[in-house]
Write a structure and sequence with these properties.
With about 650 residues, the chain is mainly beta. The chain contains 4 helices and 47 strands. Helix content is about 5%, strand content about 35%.
């Protein structure tokens, strides 16, 4: 091995990535010889040294990027471990290795940088005790070292003496004793240095009176009180000069920047005080009206017995205002807000007030936000009070004590100038039984009441109330219309159709059904009608006709099989078309419920009954509305058993009662 260069370290600026291998360019003797630095900090793990190839592999990425430097430095143990035995064969490799290490240690001691130059900043051992360099000649060149003698000559022959006391209070040899009076500071000569005598000659300031007020300093407490008289000019003590405790700028008075005040600074005046800006380290107490064109910031609470007017108010504790509070900007509170007077928001935002939202974001005069409901804004016709939440179950509560002696009422009123309670909503808490509570809607001088009625709620309306747009009833528990009542009072308007007909069904296979429209009997043979505009047409192609209106239709037909058996059916349908031994039915009618008007098929355990050879009753009931004169047919369907002809005798009646 040979040492081909003077390098002891090498730096890189690698991009991101793990398992990167770096060529060091200098000899590596042991894996422990290499120290790794990344971004100026030593890294003790996450890399592998390869002495055989003078390389290092970084196993994990410590945050590589081209702006951060990765450095590998060779730091050798400064010991010599090679021991050659006497009178033995010379171990050339061991000698060479020792020479290589000595050379490397020399480079290390000289701290050679990447360019082979001496770099003192790379010294490995920084704990060496400081040493003095002696026998140095006076420097000649600019880069030569200078001696102490040369430095002394540069002072123009000035002799430096020691002017401080030595051990035991005695002056050191050659010391010079000086007083502050011996030193000129501004050329007057006026001595400005502080001395004990000068300090004792200045009497403590107790009170300085003037025509405009007084300044009082209390030594025991350190408080400074500035009293301002109520003069017509409203002037205050002069505040000029750099030594003034109170300084004036742009008609505003403030503490000098270097001044230190106690916990409280009192302004003793009975007049209102206007401030440009107030910042309090603790509580701020205002005894009168406070008008601020700037901001109020308090690390404690703010208490005012008058009105506070400010551009912005920030406090980490409670805000208590006995009178009005007018805030031009935002209010930031760490605790409670108590205002006995009026709270007004910024006029730039139409005096809107937002709770848990800014006044600029408020949808109305008072906008209370628990959490945003989403991208939605209150309508402008209902934004005086806006309550917003993202909770699917929340709202507004009116809470009262339990009723005692009389009922309690909770009210919401709707009024105007001429009538302050034109309408409203009133909830009455019954004093003895909540099942007797009621909710009343007051409007137009009338009251509609939802009465608990002992647990069976009912709606009680005024005797003159008319409810319109009521749908025609289709069930016994539906509200009746006037038309329904009229049609069911006195003689009802009824059309009655009688049937007595025998139908045959021929089929070639049990899967084929046949549909037949029955022939009505003539009005002289059982059918009749007292519905104006209704009629019955008898005969093989007969039908019945209903004029416009709503009808309750009931059909009851019996079917008796007279020859052969049926595999399915029979059933009875209401149609608007005549069916004559058809394989598919046409013109089926849909009733009020949206279902086809027909009877049920005879079923057993969910399966159609086959091999019917007895009499059945076919029945349906529905409400039907027709828009104009409509011809209607009673159509039956049946299916014979196998390739046979079935004969079925049908008879019965259909009635249509007009209800609207």
């Amino acid at each position: 091995m040979t040492i081909s260069n003077t390098l002891t370290e090498k730096s890189f600026a690698p991009d991101a990535g793990s398992n990167q291998t770096f060529d060091l360019g200098f000899e590596v003797f042991e894996t422990s010889d290499i120290v790794m630095f990344f971004d100026g900090l030593q890294v003790t793990s996450g890399f592998t040294v390869l002495p055989s190839t003078n390389q290092v592999t970084v196993d994990s990425d410590p945050g590589f990027n081209s702006s951060k430097t990765l450095t590998f430095r060779r730091v050798l143990d400064r010991t010599q471990g090679t021991n050659l035995a006497n009178n033995q064969v010379l171990d050339v490799d061991a000698v060479e290795a020792a020479l290589d290490k000595v050379t490397a240690l020399h480079h290390q001691g000289m701290s050679i940088d990447n360019d082979g130059n001496l770099d003192a900043s790379k010294l490995v051992d920084t704990t060496v005790t400081s040493r003095r360099i002696t026998n140095v000649s006076d420097g000649i060149l600019v880069s030569d070292a200078a001696t102490v003698g040369q430095l002394a000559n540069l002072q123009g022959g000035t002799t430096f003496v020691n002017s401080i006391a030595g051990d035991g209070g005695t002056l050191k040899t050659g010391a010079v004793t000086l007083t502050t009076d011996d030193v000129d500071e501004d050329g007057s000569p006026t001595n400005l240095y502080h001395t004990t005598a000068r300090a004792s000659a200045a009497a403590p300031i107790q009170s300085i009176a003037s025509s405009d007020g007084s300044v009082t300093v209390t030594n025991s407490s350190g408080n400074i009180n500035l009293a301002v008289q109520n003069t017509s000019s409203g002037s205050v003590p002069s505040a000029t000069g750099s030594n003034a405790f109170i300084v004036s700028e742009s008609s505003a008075y403030e503490l000098q920047s270097g001044a230190t005040a106690r916990t409280s600074l009192g302004v003793g005046t009975g007049d209102d005080v206007s401030f440009n800006r107030v910042t309090a380290g603790e509580n701020l107490v205002v005894a009168g009206t406070s008008t601020l064109s700037g901001a109020v910031t308090a690390n404690g609470g703010v208490t005012s017995s008058g009105t506070i007017t400010a551009e912005q108010l920030t406090t980490t504790d409670d805000l208590t205002v006995v009178d009005d509070a007018v805030i031009g900007g935002g209010i930031t509170l760490g605790e409670d807000l108590t205002i006995a007077g009026t709270l007004k928001g910024p006029s730039s935002n139409a005096n809107r007030v937002g709770v848990n939202t800014s006044s600029a974001s408020a949808d109305g005069m008072l906008h209370v936000v628990e959490a945003t409901a989403g991208s939605v804004a209150a309508p402008t016709t209902g934004n005086l009070l806006v309550l917003e939440t993202n909770d699917s179950s929340n709202g507004l509560s009116i809470l009262q004590p339990d009723p005692s002696g009389s009922d309690n009422t909770a009210n919401i009123f709707f009024g105007k100038v001429a009538d302050n309670d034109s309408g409203g909503i009133t909830y009455t808490h019954n004093q003895t039984n909540r099942n007797q509570d009621s909710l009343a809607l007051n409007f137009g001088g009338s009251t509609a009441t939802f009465d608990a009625n002992g647990g069976s709620p009912q709606l009680v309306l005024p005797s003159t109330t008319i409810i319109d747009n009521v749908a025609t009833p289709t069930a016994s528990d539906h509200a009746a219309t006037k038309g329904y009542v009229d049609s069911n009072s006195g003689a009802p308007q009824v059309l009655c159709v009688q049937y007595s007909d025998q139908q045959h069904s021929s089929a070639s296979g049990s899967s084929n059904a046949r549909y037949h429209s029955l022939s009505p009997s003539a009005t002289s043979s059982g059918s009749f009608s007292n519905v104006s505009g209704a009629s019955v047409t008898s005969g093989g192609a007969g039908f019945f006709t209903l004029p416009s209106g709503t009808y309750l239709i009931e059909c009851n037909i019996f079917a008796a099989v007279t020859s052969a058996n049926l595999s399915r059916g029979p059933m009875v349908h209401l149609t608007t078309s005549r069916n004559n031994n058809s394989t598919s039915i046409s013109g089926q009618v849909t009733g009020a419920g949206g279902d086809t008007v027909k009877s049920f098929e005879c079923m057993l355990n969910g399966t159609p009954v086959r091999n019917l050879a007895h009499t059945q009753s076919l029945f349906y009931k529905t409400v039907l509305t027709v828009g104009s004169n409509t011809n209607l047919y009673t159509t039956v369907g049946l299916r014979p058993q196998g390739n046979t002809q079935a004969s079925v005798q049908f008879g019965g009646v259909l009635s249509a009662t007009k209800i609207a």
